[in-house]
Amino acid sequence: MDNLTSATSVCCCSIFHVTVRKVRCKISRVFLCYREDMRNSFNFLLVALIVLDSLFLVFSFIDVFRSAFFLTSGFHLDLFPYFLFPAISITMTGSVYMTVAIALERSARVSFIVLAFLSYRKKHILV
Questions:
Q1: Which one, of 112, 116, 125, 13, lies nearest residue 65 by Cα?
Q2: In which element (H, E) is residue 71 found?
Q3: What is d(CA 13, CA 65) in angstroms, rounded to the nearest whole number?
Q4: Contact predicate 19/61, CB 8 Å
Q5: Which of 42, 50, 57, 104 is most buried (most C-beta within 10 Å)?
Q6: Better pLDDT: 92 or 16
Q7: CA dist list (Å): 82 to 52, 75, 78, 87
């Protein structure tokens, strides 16, 4: 039983450190994308994706204590069905939608550039 307790604490500490490192890295990227010279629709979508992913990491980290380590309190058990589970689902769904929105925005941007290039080439070939 002592090995299980030490393995659980090592796993919990590693999950905590990975979560904190990823959230800190994502926050620094948000500040990078919000600079005045970096403001465009693509960066705003990236910021929304970063915020949703960070919230998902934090909510999932809180949920790990309930599901994997059985470290729950009465408040945590009351919080899970009304806030934590819907928050995890909403942030995951939002993250998927932001990924699709980024893909559509990039596709529209590339197709606009290709169409502009083709119309430029067509004008100069006909002249």
A1: 13
A2: none
A3: 11
A4: yes
A5: 50
A6: 92
A7: 19, 11, 7, 9
Cα 81 from chain centroid? 22
**Cα four-point dihedral sign 122, 40, 54, 101:** negative
Q: Whole-angstrom Cα distance, residue 102 to residue 44?
A: 10
Q: Which two tokens stand for residue 125?
A: 């070939």
- Using CB atoms within 10 A of its CB, is residue 57 exposed (0-12), middle (13-18) or buried (19+)? middle
Q: pLDDT by residue (tens digit) across 5-47?
A: 666 666 667 777 777 787 777 777 777 767 777 778 888 888 8
For 81, the domain range is 2-126
Distance CA 46, CA 51 (A): 9
Query: What is the identity of the amino acid at 58?
Result: V
Number of domains in the chain: 1
Provide the token pair at 62: 């809180």
